Amino acid sequence: MSVGFWPVVAIIVFVIVWVISKVIFYVKKSEKQWQAVDKSKLKRWEDDEG
Predict the structure, then answer these.
(1) Which of 48, 4, 35, 49 is nearest to 12 (CA)?
(2) How confident is the model at residue 2, as a pLDDT?
(3) Integer Cα distance of 19 and 22 in angstroms
């Protein structure tokens, strides 16, 4: 393997880990925001399930 192979692999792994951590962060943030919503003001549609 060439000398430049491992730094490229390290950068790719770093980017993948960074993206996954951002997705997890925003999923948790979104869940907290949804829990804080005043759901009594949401419109109820007739075709909603549950």
Answers:
(1) 4
(2) 82
(3) 5
Q: How far apart (Å, rounded) are the C-alpha atoms in residues 16 and 22?
A: 10
27: tokens are: 């999923």
* Digit-coded pLDDT (tens) for 1-50: 788 899 999 999 999 999 999 999 999 999 999 999 888 888 777 776 65
* Whole-model pTM over 0.70: no
What is the distance of C-alpha 47 from the center of its chain? 29
Distance, in Å, from the CA atom of 20 to the CA atom of 3, rounded to the nearest integer, reads 28
